[in-house]
Amino acid sequence: MPQPQQALLRSSEADIQLTLSSLNRNQIQTVRAAAQTFSVPRTTLRERRAGKPARRDCQPNSRKLTQEEEEVIVSYILDLDQRGFAPTYAAVRDMADKLLAARGGGHVGVHWARNFVKRTDSLTTRFNRPYDRQRALCEDRGLISCWFELVEQTKAKYGILDEDVYNFDEAGFMMGKITT
Fold first, then answer.
1. Are 112 and 71 members of one domain?
2. DSSP per-residue codes, 49-95
3. Does some domain include residue 138?
4. How far is CA 151 from CA 39, 82, 144, in A?
5. Which of the chain's termini has less CB crowding within 10 Å, N or C?
6. CA 89 – CA 114 distance, rounded (Å)
7. Buried b / exposed e across 9-19, counting CB within 10 Å, b at 16+?
8. What residues make up the domain containing 154?
9. Domain tally for the chain?
10. With b meaning 16 or more CB within 10 Å and e meaning fewer, what string describes 100-126?
């Protein structure tokens, strides 16, 4: 039975690192002999010795946003989530398009937002479901109180005064955001 591709890559990477350390300690004199001894590609070994990083450590050529721009998007998404507004894939894609437009770039692809969330450890997707009246009547007061604590923390964080908060009752505090 063949080994999984990821396991083969790890063992190959380990072999390359072992070969490089043997060459650096002068245990093996030539790159050709080291490549044959450890069964690694000679060209890969030569490139690594010259300082070229492994492909998995490089940024892909197709990546349109810089690392800083992606970090800004992640922090903005987490800030929105903390305030109770989870953005959709379309909203995340719009954020990326605005960042690209600011520096004269094009647009990200249709599936960029989904792939971005997959490769970012701090982001996950969750599905909303309709919130009906019967379910609202059965809610536990202790569970809902954490939402109001979050509101108080947000008001304190941004300096929002009580007179600036309006239409904040049980029926309408998030009416636009509680359905799918």
1. yes
2. HTTPPPGGGSPPTT--S-HHHHHHHHHHHHHHHHTT-PPPHHHHHHH
3. yes
4. 61, 10, 11
5. N
6. 7
7. eeebeebbeeb
8. 130-180
9. 3
10. beeeeeeebeeebbeebbeeeeeeeee
* Maximal C-alpha separation, the chain: 78
Find where tokens 């044959």 sit. Answer: 36
DSSP string, 138-154: T--HHHHHHHHHHHHHH
Residues 173, 144, single domain; the answer is yes
> Can you read off the two tokens belonging to residue 142?
């202790």
Model confidence pLDDT, tens digit, residues 3-26: 445 444 445 888 888 999 999 899
Can you tell me which residue has the tokens 């396991």? 7
User: Residue 99, Cβ neighbours under 10 Å: how many?
Assistant: 19
46 located within any domain: yes
